[in-house]
Amino acid sequence: MNPKKRILSGMRPTGALHLGNYHGALTNWNNMQDEYECFFFIADWHALTSDYENTENIRNNIHEMMIDWLSVGLSPDKSTLFVQSDIKEHAELFLLLCMITPTPWLERNPTYKEQITQLSNKDLSTFGFLGYPVLQAADIIMYKADGVPVGIDQVPHVEITREIARRFNHFYGNVFPEPQAILTPTPKILGIDRRKMSKSYHNAIFLSDSSDVIQKKVNEMITDPQRKRKKDPGDPSVCNVYDFHKLYSDESLIAQVDKECRSAEIGCVQCKKAMATNLISKIAPIREKRNYYLDRPDTVKEIIQAGSEKARAVAQETMKQVRAAIQICPRPIAILHKI
Ligand code: TRP
Ligand code: SF4
User: Fold this and answer.
1) Is-above-0.90 flag for pTM?
2) Spatial separation of the C-alpha atoms in residues 196 and 190, rounded to whole Å
């Protein structure tokens, strides 16, 4: 019998999760729980790399994020769910990996270059921000993960992780396997204004939204921009509402919308109504579970604590091997006595 392969992935605690996060990462994580030994964690130190000035929400965001995870089906019985800063070993491994990581590897990282220009309102010329992928490498190799389920934007980081692991093994002996990125399928899901769904664009539908709010947001969704009146035939292939139908409606309704939109038999108001009904019935049970955990903050804390204990045991074992490989600690007894 083959032991299960191990995967690991993380998310920065950015606050309430929206449908983009749900379909982009969480559904995939959820589906991997039976096939793999899973480690999922909240990367709160990574949040500090860009948001070091505003830390007042982090604690609450961690709590909310864990609630969202539990509500969509991540389970502490199947997976190890934890918070990065609870495992101080990540900081130690990060420090050691910093010693062997050439800065040009970090400077040429496409995500780094892109973010520096895109987030021009923040001062990101910090050591910590440049070192983001080194911390991520520490997160990953600490658990000797075989696979890292991520979106395409994170692939360069997994690549740097592989290079760092290789370099470590080259200097100190074989301690780390090289992890593979597992590219997760992400259905196209845009915000209600047809831009990428993002919290900062104020165009997102959240897992925490009430049914009324979802209905209102769906009503505001931009449809086929060419279709001004109901009697104009529409083109579902350019319509965001239709993309949502593909995620939430059954085959026959999808086919019907496709046909009746093109023939101008169905109006956008009616079409949205049908989609919203299906979306709401998908989100309602998630929201119910959210409310359950929102009322039980201690249960959530206990889940995080138990997950962190499981993660820490693995991390401590890895760090023993790392220190031995680098020959930094434990030192021979004779030397210790002299200090
Ligand atoms: N960089 C990831 C993101 O922004 C979060 C992350 C931190 C991560 N450490 C990780 C993802 C380790 C996978 C593995 O989404
Ligand atoms: Fe989009 Fe539906 Fe309107 Fe067609 S009828 S444009 S699919 S909202």
Assistant:
1) yes
2) 5
Core vs surface per residue 99-135: b (16+ CB within 10 A) or e: eebeeeebeebeebeebeeeeeebebeeeebbbbbbb
Q: Count how many residues are written for the chain.
A: 339
Strands in the chain per DSSP E: 6-11, 37-42, 80-83, 147-150, 180-183
What is the residue whose two structure tokens read 């070993």? 89
Cα-based distances in Å from 110 to 50, 128, 298 = 16, 16, 41
Q: Are 6-189+297-338 and 211-282 the same fold in CATH? A: no
Measured between alpha carbons, how far is 170 from 168 in angstroms, rounded to an integer? 5
6-189+297-338 adopts what CATH topology?
Rossmann fold (3.40.50)
Range scoring the smallest mean pLDDT among 44-53, 113-122, 306-315: 113-122
What lines the ligand 1 site, CB under 6 Å?
8-12, 43, 46, 136, 139-140, 148, 150, 154, 157
Judged by average pLDDT, the poorest of 1-10, 24-33, 89-98 is 1-10
What is the 221 CA–ligand 2 centroid distance (Å)? 10
CATH superfamily of 211-282: Tyrosyl-Transfer RNA Synthetase (1.10.240.10)
Percent of the chain with pLDDT over 90: 85
Domain locations in the chain as residue ranges: 6-189+297-338, 211-282
Task: State which of 190, 218, 266, 273 you would mutate to test the pocket of ligand 2, scoring each by most atoms of that ligand within 8 A of its C-beta.
Answer: 266
3-class DSSP assignment, residue 6: strand
> Minimum-distance ligand to the CA of 115?
1
pLDDT digits (tens, 9 = 90+) for 220-264: 999 999 999 999 999 999 999 999 999 999 999 999 999 999 999
Per-residue pLDDT at 338 exceeds 70: no
Q: In this structure, which ligand is nearest to the CA of 41? A: 1
From the CB of residue 62, how many other CB atoms can be counted at a distance below 10 Å?
22
Name the pLDDT band for 180 (thresholds 50, 70, 90). very high
